[in-house]
Amino acid sequence: MFIWRLTQRLGSAVALKRTFFSDDEMLGSAFEREAKTLARLRHPVLPKVSDHFTENEEQFLVMEHISGDDLSKRLEAMQKPFPLSWVLFWADHLLDALAYLHAHEPPIIHRDIKPQNLKLTDENHIILLDFGLSKNNTGDTRAISTGSTGSVVGYTPHYAPMEQIRGTGTNPKSDIYSLSATLYQLMTNVVPADALTRADALLNDMSDPIKPISELNTEIPKAVSDVILKGMEISQDRRFAGRA
């Protein structure tokens, strides 16, 4: 994927996003799905798309340019967790965005929420990016490798729930798991163990490798830690459904 920052004739900045998988039908379809999904969404946490076109067998997406760094880069630069007040503020806005997405019929599932897909703008607004994996809640979620990026179409291992990894279908609670795993990392600066590793440990009567946030960061109240871990339950039936 290549992204350029361009200036339109009227002076406004836009981002031009180009695919690098013109010969891969599945990835090309994911890119086209991102364009169609974003074009009809209107929410302050979601980027605005203005155009989508194909030229010389390459697909292009024109969207608003969002300056700033993703939260993964911010964490790497800080080498410590974000302040609790910041994370709770972002969580409130992200839960509102998920409520908006999941209220569609059928629900729109992002499927790849992670620190790398959250950008903090120069105005300190949080933006949820990369809808290439988003889909209406109607199909399967089998994974196909994309190479050295660490992601696959369907999930990013450390933030994906068990049902997504197994390909048994995603739903709004799948996004809740991914958001909770992301918040876990933002509050601890520790990448969470993936769901398969956790499930294997529990099946072998070992302790869950996910430690309570309040043990890793003493500034986090136990009540907050408990809510995040509730969202990261292996069984989706035990997760909360969304914003209270």
TrEMBL record:
CDD domains: STKc_PknB_like (cd14014). Residues 1-244 form the Protein kinase domain. InterPro entries: Kinase-like_dom_sf, NEK_Ser/Thr_kinase, Prot_kinase_dom. PROSITE patterns: PROTEIN_KINASE_DOM. GO terms for molecular function: ATP binding; protein serine/threonine kinase activity. It comes from the Eukaryota. Its EC number is 2.7.11.1. PANTHER family: SERINE/THREONINE-PROTEIN KINASE NEK, SERINE_THREONINE-PROTEIN KINASE NEK2. This is non-specific serine/threonine protein kinase. The lineage of its organism: Eukaryota, Metazoa, Spiralia, Lophotrochozoa, Mollusca.
